[in-house]
Amino acid sequence: MGRGRDIIAGLSIAGLMLPEAVAYAGIAGLPPQRAILAAIAGSLAYLLIGRSRFAITSATSSSAAILAAALATFPAAHGTQPAMATLLVAMVGLIFGVAAVARLGGLASFISRPVLRGFAFGLAITIIIKQLPVIVGLSFPAANVAELLLAIVQAMGRWHGASVATGLIALAALLALRRVPALPGAFLVLIGGIGASMLFDLPARGVATVGMIDLMPHWDGLVLPDWRQASRLVQLAVPLVLILFAESWGTMRGLALRHGDTVEPNREMGALGLANIASAVVQGMPVGAGFSAGSAAEAAGAATRWTGLFAAMGLAALVLLAMPLVARLPQPVLAAVVVAALVHALDPAPLVRLWRIRRDLMVALGAAVGVLVLGVLNGMLFAILLSLGVLIRRLATPHFTLLGRLGEGHDYVDLARHPEAICPPGMVIVRPAEPLFFANAERILARVAEYQAGHRQIRSIVLSLEESFDLDSTALDALLEFETLMETRKVQLRLARVRDHVRDLLRDAGATALAEQSNYSVDDAVTALSKENR
Q1: DSSP E strands: which ranges in 468-522?
Q2: Which residue in 73, 100, 69, 88 sits closest to 248, CA to CA?
Q3: Neighbouring residues of 77: CB distance < 8 A, sequence distance ≥ 6
């Protein structure tokens, strides 16, 4: 029963993979066979290691856009871009493999969700605008999105009517078919586009078509890179790895949680590495588990990982058997497939939610604007730096909470939120809001010292280190200097929520007295100080 469901699901997904593969190859500026072969080889290779039953490993719109931006940095006149594309895909696979061996599955966390949503929003706008010349049947040498959009509007009188009509009808059909998830909408529109092309002789009316697809890889001009080229390829591959893993892991994890499945990030990272190396072998494109294909697998009822195998086999059979028909496919139909696939990324609901909870909206908008202003590749790098900047700012911002005991129990809570909580007279209980480390320890403890200096009645301090799993040498030195300052002021200091390895660190640093003045709980520290002050 499960195998039958996988066969049906795989064949349904193959109908989506073909138009998306051809369209995403166009985004990257590469021949269609690269995306088709990448989808076949990537899906088969993923099965060897990967464990997600919904992961369909193929080219994605975001990776295609980043690949196009990366290839634009190489001179097109010398014909090096196809070879560099193959080497870049191989480098992506190698980086994935090294990261998996090093167990860097948390790599995707370096791009926060708000930044990723903002980047996806800006990228979707960029890709959709870049599909408009195909729909209107014109070409524009615009350097950026704003110039391209302006050029399209100014050339409205020269738009090719048949191309516009073809693209709009295809887009309307795609959006209408979304209301019936069980139907392979993209495949049905592909068949309709081919039928319309033959029935109305659209090529004779000036509508561009895909043309014949050569499935045989060509290895001419491919040589191993020297050290300088390899270094440059690594720099260009890192953004691809980050966006592919963030997108793929988000899809895998989200669908696994929804269905009670289990996936492990390091294993999936290794599977993506193998898939990309297989794609490079057939001169394909970077591959990952995209949201649209994963959602299609879920809607089609994928029961096991073998769905990917049947999807790859179905795609191969579809291309081999229908090659002359695919050649008649109008390019505006492919542009409509891309636009329809990205409509979900334009949903403002995630941004509205950030505005409603008053968290990270400006970060998400900054990532979106970064893509639109700086371009895809620099926008991706800007998004990564923005994520890291937000993290560093949060960790380095000196902030602490004053605690008090709630009732007669052992719970200590934020006095600002619970004014009924009490603190013993002459004592203050301080909890740093972030882990103490080199970037914030001195400033946080300096603020605590300033607070004590402004409240001279405070003669004892409990410093809770529950947020600090460990201390680096800078944080350790700052803590010892704070202890010395409190001794100078005749203020008693006790540490609370101190882990055993931090106590060992204090003893190794010669701070035996401070280690002995450390407690496992805030209540024990308060009780100890209260006894000492009797």
Answers
A1: 492-496
A2: 100
A3: none
3-state secondary structure of 1: coil
In this structure, which amino acid lies at residue 295? Answer: S
- How far apart are the C-alpha atoms of 50 and 353, rounded to whole Å? 33
Collapsing DSSP states into helix, strand and coil, what is residue 8? helix
pLDDT tens by residue, 454-487: 998 999 999 999 999 999 999 999 999 999 999 9
Q: Which two tokens stand for residue 526?
A: 């308060």
46 contact partners, CB below 8 Å, separation of at least 6: 55, 57, 271, 272, 274, 275, 308
Coil vs helix vs strand at 122: helix
Looking at residue 114, its pLDDT comes to 84
Cα-based distances in Å from 194 to 209, 232, 325, 372: 9, 41, 7, 34
Smallest Cα–Cα separation from 435: which of 387, 397, 477?
A: 397
3-state DSSP call for residue 300? coil
Q: In angstroms, rounded to a whole number, what is the distance separating the alpha carbons of residues 395 and 392?
A: 5
Alpha-carbon gap, residue 48 to 381, rounded angstroms: 32
Rounded distance between C-alpha atoms, residue 290 and residue 295, angstroms: 9
Sheet holding 412-414, edge to edge: 412-414, 400-405, 427-432, 460-464, 492-496
Q: Which residues pair with 404 in a beta bridge?
A: 413
Check: CB of residue 46 under 8 Å from CB of residue 38.
no
Distance CA 341, CA 344 (A): 7
| Residue with tokens 């110039």, as numbered in its chain | 147
The upper half-sphere exposure of residue 92, i.e. CA atoms within 13 Å in the direction of its Cβ, equals 35
CB 191 within 8 A of CB 325: no
* Per-residue DSSP letter, 206: T
User: For residues 498 and 518, what is the distance between their CA atoms, to the nearest angstrom?
Assistant: 6
- Enumerate residues 6+ apart whose C-beta is below 8 A from 146: 372
Q: Are residues 315 and 56 in contact, defined by beta-carbon separation less than 8 angstroms?
A: no
Which tens digits make up the pLDDT trace of 279-317? 999 999 999 998 778 877 887 778 888 889 999 998 998
